[in-house]
């Protein structure tokens, strides 16, 4: 993408990309400028702080953060920036994402993280949520979102059961 990114997609590990790709695919489909980075809360904490501190001045309007296990990445980012953070729980351990979901959703009062569903559905919805946030000030994007929804409606209306 050559335009200034509006959405930052970050993940704790390269292994999370299998899930976060669902967000990236939708951002591409909706023609929303984005960037994607690996930012680990416990392995690259200084980079996490730098990313969060620079996010607003670089023009990011939403951050989508996915992580597995003790998933502190979204909460730590939210603690360091006023850019809205959407958290995507990644199923990465024996607990299949329940650990990540609870880590992300149970932010103490004062530092919100908008938490989505576990895995790819959550990643896709994070991108759609980001698009809705941006569409509040972007009439063209609102049209693209309406068309995207209409296409999903048409898929259901056209579906036939294998009776
Ligand atoms: C978390 O640990 C990451 O977000 C990932 O979901 C999980 C496993 O990371 P790797 O061991 O695959 O690098 O920090």
TrEMBL record:
Q: Biological process GO terms, please?
A: 'de novo' IMP biosynthetic process
Catalytic activity of the protein: 5-carboxyamino-1-(5-phospho-D-ribosyl)imidazole + H(+) = 5-amino-1-(5-phospho-D-ribosyl)imidazole-4-carboxylate
**Per its UniProt entry, what is the enzyme's top EC class, as one word?**
isomerase
PurE domain residues are 5-156
**Gene3D superfamilies found in the cross-reference section:** 3.40.50.1970
Keyword list (alphabetical) reads:
Isomerase, Purine biosynthesis
Instruction: Identify the metabolic or biological route this protein is part of.
Output: Purine metabolism; IMP biosynthesis via de novo pathway; 5-amino-1-(5-phospho-D-ribosyl)imidazole-4-carboxylate from 5-amino-1-(5-phospho-D-ribosyl)imidazole (N5-CAIR route): step 2/2
Q: Which GO terms describe its molecular function?
A: 5-(carboxyamino)imidazole ribonucleotide mutase activity
Please list the residues that bind substrate. Answer: 13, 16, 43
Matches recorded under PANTHER family: PHOSPHORIBOSYLAMINOIMIDAZOLE CARBOXYLASE, PHOSPHORIBOSYLAMINOIMIDAZOLE CARBOXYLASE CATALYTIC SUBUNIT
> What does the function comment of this entry state?
Catalyzes the conversion of N5-carboxyaminoimidazole ribonucleotide (N5-CAIR) to 4-carboxy-5-aminoimidazole ribonucleotide (CAIR).
HAMAP family on file: PurE_classI
Entry similarity comment: Belongs to the AIR carboxylase family. Class I subfamily.
What is the protein named? N5-carboxyaminoimidazole ribonucleotide mutase
Q: What is the name of the gene encoding this protein?
A: purE
